[in-house]
Amino acid sequence: MTSAFLLAAVLTALPALASAATARVDTGTLRGLDAGGGVTAYEGVPYAAPPVGPLRWREPQPVTAWRGVRPATAFAPACPQHGVSMPGEPPPRTEEDCLYLNVWTPKAHAGPGRLPVMVFIPGGGYENGATSLPLYWGDRLARRGVVVVTLAYRLGVLGFLAHPELTAESPHKVSGDYGLLDQIGALSWVRRNIAAFGGDPRKVTIFGQSAGAMSVSMLMASPLSQGLFQRAIGESGGLFEPVQLAPSYQLATAETDGVAFAKSRGATSLADLRKLPAEALLGHGATRVSHPVIQSYALPLSPYDAFAAGRQAHVPVLTGWNAEEPRSLTDLSTVKAATFAADITSAFGPLPPPLIEAYPHADDAQARQARVDFERDLRFAWDNWAWARLAAKAGQPAYAYRFEQKPPFPAGSVRAGWGASHYAELWYVFDHLDQETWAWTPADRRLADAMTSYWVNFARAGDPNGSGLPAWPRLQGVAGPVLRLGDPIAAGPPPELKTLTVFDATYTALRGAPFGETKAP
To answer: Model's pTM, two decimal places?
Structure first.
């Protein structure tokens, strides 16, 4: 993101404040700002009380009503985090008081109405993320006739810590997943208030990327979010692998890790932990307690087990992955053929040998490509492929994609050489090519227009297809088809089908049950 673009956005917004529209929500009146292009934005809208002091590690609580008109003209600080929200972007401003959302709505529908609603959940590995990131701005999507919402949720230790004392004080006698409860709280706010912005509370699409996509898969499994959305989109992420590969996600292990984390911060009790400043909870040792917890109040079953039991949200699904996901996440310069298997084990823990053996790595060049392919399949492709297949197996409309376009990331930049990597599809989904002065081609612009249309069509009707677009068939089974989003756009089997089926066979053996089923107790 260039400083010139940000400056221009600020200067454009300043004269628009006086004439901006207002919206009445259940806690008061908001004043938005003109976002240009016939769109009004409402930024920094509170959907829950500040989760500070005694509300740290509790379910989100109601907002206190205000008198008069509250300006909704600036993004709220991001939730406390360690690092940057996305490689190549500066760290965001953070505060523990961070449960806010943003709304973009077409001006022509600023009053009560019935436009489809698209609610975006940012990614960041559950430890980072900021809705203020310009790449996530919803103005361009809103021009297509939808209301766009982006939401913040508690991250890291503050969002996902499990601890025996937290379990004991909870009326549900479980702990963890406060960030997921935040997302459900935000969706409840949307249900109550989105009509004031022209949106239809009965036509809500949740979509997320990376950890945001994993969150979408969890929301499909959570009994607390049923009925709060009618479509689901997951980009590069899902939570469907066998629980045996992620023991720390189980409540008992997560609680043990929570006790160890508290001791690492010199805290002997929950009261001590709540007294610590947020900054003291970040950094070293926090990653172990910064992930979802299965068997929590919000997530009693894993997404896979929820689908197997028929307890998932029965809504249309659109999901997929990027061809070169790890190129923006992993240092490939150190990958060597001689240490390929050992390096995989070091990075991801013990894995069944067939998974590693499926990726030839005879020399260093082949090993680097094998690492890209392996990590793509392990962390992203299999989960999204399985998600679409589970939905189709349940009779839900399911559409899968493989993003293959390589954005023109500038040489010499931190993003140089990323290709069709993790994050790369976001510039196209949000139609934000013009935020960057990169050497975009006509093919890039055609793809951005098509992808934005697909996503908006899906939000409208649960089907991405529309006039003038290449046909996107529903996924039918193992061989797809998936829509390959590149130049050209075409449907067919996923190119990595052979290795994905190795994952399938390995995971089936671990579960002791066919795909889509669980082992009988």
So the answer is: 0.94
Look at residues 213, 502, 506, 501 and name the one whose alpha carbon lies nearest to residue 384: 213
Q: Which helix (H) or strand (E) holds 203?
A: strand 199-209
CB 155 within 8 A of CB 94: no
- Cβ-in-10-Å burial (0-12, 13-18, 19+) of 351 comes to middle
To which residue do tokens 């010199």 refer? 266
* Architecture of the domain spanning 3-511: 3-Layer(aba) Sandwich (3.40)
- 267-302 confidence digits (pLDDT tens): 999 999 999 999 999 988 898 999 999 999 999 999
By C-alpha distance, which of 123, 138, 124, 43 is closest to 459?
Answer: 138
Closest among 189, 266, 271 to 225, alpha carbons compared: 189
422 is catalytic: yes
Omega cis (within 30) before 92: no
pLDDT tens across 130-174, in order? 999 999 999 999 999 999 999 999 999 999 999 999 999 999 999
Helix (H) or strand (E) holding 456: helix 442-461
Contact 30, 105 (CB under 8 A): no
Q: Which of 422, 425, 432, 496 is catalytic?
A: 422
Q: For the chain, how far is it from start to end, CA to CA, in angstroms?
A: 52
Choose the catalytic residue: 96, 324, 325, 496. 325
Q: Where are the domains of the chain?
A: 3-511
Active site residue 436: no
Catalytic residue among 210, 217, 222, 328: 210
> Could you tell me how far CA 140 lies from the centroid of its own chain?
19
Closest by Cα among 91, 305, 322 to 218: 305
- Give the pair of three-digit tokens for residue 260: 């160890």
Is 361 a catalytic site residue? Answer: no
Q: Please give the structure tokens belonging to residue 439.
A: 């050497």
Phi and psi based region of residue 417 (left: phi greater than 0; alpha: psi -120 to 50; beta: remaining): left
Contact between 246 and 239 (Cβ < 8 Å): no
